[in-house]
Amino acid sequence: MDFLDPRKRRAHTIRLMVGYVLVAIAIGLGGWLLLKAASGYGVDPKTGDIVQNGLLFVGSKPGGADIYINDNLQGSQTSARLILPAGNYKLTLKKDGYRTWERSITLNEGSVARYVYPFLFPAEPQPQTIKEYTKAPPLITQSPDRRWLLVQRPTSSSGSITFDEFDAANLTKQPRALVFPSGLLTSLTSSTLKEVEWSTDNKHLLLRHSFKGGNEFIIFNRDIPAESINVNKLFDISPTEVALRDKKIDQLYVFLQNGGQLQIASTANSVVTPLLKDVLAFKPSGTNLISYATGQNAPSGQVIARIWDDSQSYALYTFRVGGSYLVDEAQFQGHWYYVVGSNEDERVNVYKDPLGSLKNPAIGRAVPLLSLNIIGATKVSFSNNTRFIAAEAGQKLAVYDLETQSIYRYTLENPLAGILRWMDGHRLIGASNGSVFVTDYDSTNQQTLVPTNYSGGGFFDPNYEQLFTTAVSKAGVVLQRVDMRAGVDLPR
Q1: pTM, whole model, 2 decimals?
Q2: Measured at the alpha carbon of residue 275, what is the angle toward residues 239 and 312, in degrees to the nearest 5?
Q3: Do 111 and 141 reside in the same domain of the chain?
């Protein structure tokens, strides 16, 4: 028997050991190959060379767009996942009835790139009249959920103020007339309204009312106009600015420029509580966080940007006195970002989680994450998804991408009718040369859509399928809607 023969038994043992070694090598090699594949390594089918790939996700609104890489049609449509060798590419999206979207991209080794934000605009947008007005509406505003569009009627002979409320989610409904209650406003002489901010309940709108002899602030209840509030009358004060605390109407931040007093006012019991003094500008967030600029304890010719957090104030940045101050803050991917600058400065500083350093006695100071170099900035803002920070100075923009840590600086070719606003998380909208103007955050894919006389460009419905704007007509001004769908996406 073989197992009794020492030579055969030894040979069997050797074969087993060799087998074990080969299996171990195969497992190790397989694991190594899987690791490399997971890291993006692959074999170029054309050259046979080993290359390191990247993963590219491509999406669009609407979907079903053809994907081109370096002008070569790919075998899939949006939304899609592509595995490509690392390198620089031109990404192009095309769909019948829509304008082409394209931009240059860089795909790094073993990285994942997501371009799922492209918006395809119709090739030939067709405006349709919703309602005619004798002249341009003095104010157009929209609720945060983009459902309720309020259009102020040109002042009637009686002088009363009325909004037409359009349901952007159901355009077959007739607009509802929202009339300001009599006695709400102090005076209607030379009366103008300006939007300050909406509450997150999508019902209450804070307005600044200017009239001959003064200003006042109104909390307008679009659901029940009779329950609207005159802030000045309720608290018997004349504030310079008012802001909603935590985007609710229960409590307000009331700012009086004389003395720089910032107070908290409760609409429930009409009580006003002092909070800060010597304030020059402020921007609240939530219930216990305020970014503000102050001259208190600042060196001559300078001001200090500070953060008020849960009853404690921390000095963030000292810079020279300006005509207006830019302060803002927002949270992105679990981190807090603060923006500070002025219209006289040559830069706008961006800070990441500065409170951690400011609260640490061993550090006691914050270092900027970066500076957006732009002279004479008049506005700073976060995109709707808070991923991008934009600083504007006329036609000049500086935009920082918090996710990719990229900075874009550019000058728009044509003058703007007003300040750009964020259309969504990736695009800015405004008006230029008498038409609605839209651009991606990095200045690519600039679009001129339809004629408009509205300096803000326009508004969208909740699904971004309808654009609302105004345009001059023979009889006056018309409110229009423009379908953003085309081709096979149009309703049948």
Answers
A1: 0.89
A2: 145
A3: no
